[in-house]
Amino acid sequence: MARDLNISERVAIVTGGSRGIGRATALRLGELGAAVIVNYQHDRSAAESVVSELQQIGARAAALQADVSSLSSAELLIHNTVELFRTVDILVCNAGIWRGAPVEEISEELWDRTMAINLKGTWSVCRAAVPVMKQNRFGRIVIVSSTAGQRGEAGVSNYAASKGGQISFTKSLATELAGSGITVNCVAPGWVDTDMNTEVFADGQRRKSIIETIPLKRIATADDIAGPIAFLCTDWARHITGEVLNVNGGSVLCG
Asked: Whole-model pTM?
């Protein structure tokens, strides 16, 4: 059965793959044998560092810059991946931003930027990758959402709305593409100890109060999220599509 976890013939793209959950996911996919494209927007050095780690474990890998909020940039990302590795089998839509404010203080610029990266960015790479997957009659798409998209979250209504949109998009795309050999699933993390949350966790009292809301009594690591994402890309998950997989230590119990 272990052979069902091997994805050595597959080519994966991880958007926002230079840090945090994206970095951990790229490494997990590489360990399972996939060739990995580490997508980044600004930090080329961080992306190349992930590529170096992947190459050290014997995985084929490359870093490609793309701003997924732009359809033309997303299309170029898919084109360049095909040029390098001939196809696209796995797409992990992880690129995102988390900034908020009370609703009356959210600027139009912040609202639009959040939607552009988190929601439109998910659509743009899926739109660009799906024709390649359809041609191959195979694809694994995993969208990284959030518990905020399931229950809402005060002070970050823009972020929660974008993440809720990702969940609806997942379910719609799963049924639309089911006949094409493509599965589409969503992973919804809760609090994760990444640099996105550094400022929050720097407050020791707030960190402690957050831990108290988590039944497992610890904050997830990036690798805690990467493992379930990688699982959804293997044959062990071949009959799962349209699912929202909660990875939150029991803090939000909903589908």
From this structure: 0.94
